[in-house]
Amino acid sequence: MRRIARLAALVLPVLALAACGDSREVGSVGVDWTGNDIAIDAVPDPEVAGVVCHLAYFNRGFIDRISQGNWFEDPSYSALDCSAVGPITVGDISTRPGGEEIFRENRSLIWKSLRVTRIYDATNDALVYLGHARQIQQGSGKMSLSVVPLRGENVTWLNAPPAAAAAPAPAPAAQ
Asked: Of 148, 142, 154, 105, whose CA–CA distance to 129 is shortest?
């Protein structure tokens, strides 16, 4: 009995912190009677004003955590959609092929995190957003992709735009 009381004393504060409100949260949908939810967060790109990504991910409920025995881990699955919500102002973004991480949230105490990485596609003048799980071991292939085209949008570059974005796209060849 003492063991259960000690475990409850350890777990209850963690669950209380997890229940605290998150200013990014747009909504949450209950998916079953055990308290499992799909949470939806609005994640603005910190270097690209006018672009917001909506990220949906699974939150395990208390009953599911007890029955599964895996207290401190949520699944890696996520869905991502990004869009222009106004005039776009591109700040100091990475244009290297690996892009840069704009969002990270732990999905377990140590081993797993949910991330959003932005990659600039210079050829197509677009921002590519990749939602993916990262694990220290046994990497995850669970991912979601969203693209925000910049061509034809009201876009301001705080720094000079990359060479491919500055030049107009070539016209298709007549046949």
From this structure: 148
Structure tokens at 150: 């910049």
Burial tier of 107 (Cβ tally within 10 Å: 0-12, 13-18, 19+): buried
Contact 71, 110 (CB under 8 A): no
Rounded (5°) CA angle 49-52-53: 145
Helix, strand or coil for residue 14?
A: helix
Tokens, residue 116: 């959003």
The DSSP code for 29 is E
Q: How many CB atoms within 10 Å of residue 92?
A: 8
pLDDT digit string (tens) for the chain, length 175 residues: 554 434 334 333 333 334 444 578 899 888 788 778 888 999 999 999 999 999 998 777 667 666 666 666 556 678 899 999 999 999 999 999 899 999 888 766 666 678 899 999 999 999 999 988 765 455 566 788 999 999 888 899 998 778 655 555 555 666 5
Distance (Å, rounded) from C-alpha 50 to C-alpha 96? 22
Residue 48 CA, distance from chain mean position: 15
Q: Which tokens sit at 132?
A: 């993916």
Say how many C-beta atoms besides its own lie within 10 A of residue 119's C-beta: 20
